[in-house]
UniProtKB/TrEMBL annotation, chain A:
Subcellular localization, as worded in the UniProt entry: Cytoplasm; Nucleus
PANTHER family: METALLOPROTEASE TLDD (PTHR32194), PROTEASOME SUBUNIT BETA (PTHR32194:SF3)
GO cellular component: cytoplasm; nucleus; proteasome core complex
Record text on subunit structure and interactions: Component of the proteasome complex.
InterPro entries, sorted: Proteasome_bsu_CS (IPR016050), Proteasome_sua/b (IPR001353), Proteasome_suB-type (IPR023333)
Catalytic reaction equation(s): Cleavage of peptide bonds with very broad specificity
Main location: cytoplasm
PROSITE patterns: PROTEASOME_BETA_1, PROTEASOME_BETA_2
Organism of this sequence: Zingiber officinale (Ginger)
Protein name: Proteasome subunit beta
Functional description taken from the UniProt entry: The proteasome is a multicatalytic proteinase complex which is characterized by its ability to cleave peptides with Arg, Phe, Tyr, Leu, and Glu adjacent to the leaving group at neutral or slightly basic pH. The proteasome has an ATP-dependent proteolytic activity.
UniProt GO BP: proteolysis involved in protein catabolic process
Domain of life: Eukaryota
Automatic annotation (TrEMBL), chain B:
Similarity comment: Belongs to the peptidase T1B family.
Main location: cytoplasm
InterPro entries tied to this protein: Proteasome_bsu_CS, Proteasome_sua/b, Proteasome_suB-type
Designated name of the protein: Proteasome subunit beta
GO annotations of cellular component type: cytoplasm; nucleus; proteasome core complex
Oligomeric form and interacting partners: Component of the proteasome complex.
Amino acid sequence: MVSSLLPRRPNSRMMELHLTGFESCPLFPGGVVADHGENPLAAASFQLPACSDFDGFQKDAIQMMKPAKGTTTLAFVFKEGVIVASDSRATMGGYISSQSVKKIVEINPHMLGTIAGGAADCQFWHRNLGIKCRLHELANKRRISVTGASKLLANILYSYKGMGLSVGTMIAGWDEKGPGLYYVDNEGGRLKGTRFSVGSGSPYAYGVLDSGYQFDMSVEEAAELARRAIYHATFHDGASGGVASVYHVGPQGWKKLSGDDVGELHYKYYPVIPTPTEQEMADTSAA
Amino acid sequence: MALRRDWVYENNGGTCVAIAGSDYCVIAADTRLSVGYSIYTREFSKICNLADKCVLATSGFQGDMKALQKNLAARHLIYQHQHNKQMSCPAMAQLLSNTLYYKRFFPYYTFNILGGLDSDGKGCVFTYDAVGSYERVGYSAQGTGAGLIIPVLDNQLKSPSPLLLPAKDAVTPLSEAEAVDLVKDVFASATERDIYTGDKVEIVVINASGIRQELMELRKD
């Protein structure tokens, strides 16, 4: 790729691309020009297509490759900490590419992140955030706050604003100030809050979550509320499904509370009660 | 899309499949390379042996596949020089994910499956999308015939999700010979209904004794 053909953009955001997490063991510490193919260990940067219509190219490329997207996640703060829950379905266009995607990522033993939007975008940048958090710990001899971690991620995503990343994530954790929950997205938005749901199934999840929420719940009640909210979202939203996972973040860190197949949850919440006629038919055929 | 003067991709078709067992891994891919309605060659290998216990199968655009394989093979060689050992399959899996994501804005048009044995000797299969999102699974299919093959594999091999709590064992009960037979059957079936799949299927089996390869003829029409 010839760098002189890079599209000129009116703003200077292109120059501020966060390239952290790219450097691997430097074989040539003198600094090398990142010429593709010449030195695979050179400090890498994102290669860009040499075309005049960058946005059109991205639109067409993403449409052709249909990368995996994920869909219903929620998190809320309550008396005992933070509950984080998600489904596990990934779709590529209309095709279900996986029913067992981990949408709740463990950034460190005290912080969780959720994945919604582009699976690759979320996986990569969450791993990058985990690295940055660990470096912060080593440099400052204390764990990073939820505020700090979410700000790191938000700044990175803002620097790629407009380039087509699709990330709708929540950062949940317990730091010195108590439970913390932030929503961060690819527009560069970062919101502190007590209740969030992200993804195509979020309207359904909000309905259940908002009507059942109380600050003074026990951990079991809160987990059950989260589980039901995810179940109802998977029921109505075609892009959500699989396994409903529920995590709790407390002062000692996070713990996975449950993972239930939503098909089985359906029959648990709405068991099939046979009508008298059906019951009679079943009895006579058994007899 | 193809009318853009700067459109550099093309889909060369083909299908890849991998199945992980308790102590083996089967990776298979057909050998047809097509462009549009033409077959360019019937003898094109989509499989690359990256390491002792790690094999990559790729469908999609073969130009990007070759570039990706060379990139990974070079990185593996550097790793061996620096660490004096082969890369493990999970390590290679993350390397592949990062390599794909580094081209997030100019993607490799490749649909990859990485198969091999993990450090415990158990079979592992990692499946990818074009920009690097990945997941360890028990079996996978990618490519033009994947939509025909995955439902059959789901039917034969579907195991409890690793996300369930309390955890349920997710190992495929199939033996190595049964898994190879299943792979042959699904390729024969996919060849019937997918124009881009056929000619031959290259089957690679990794187990504790090493890597062995088999070729099976498929319909050439």
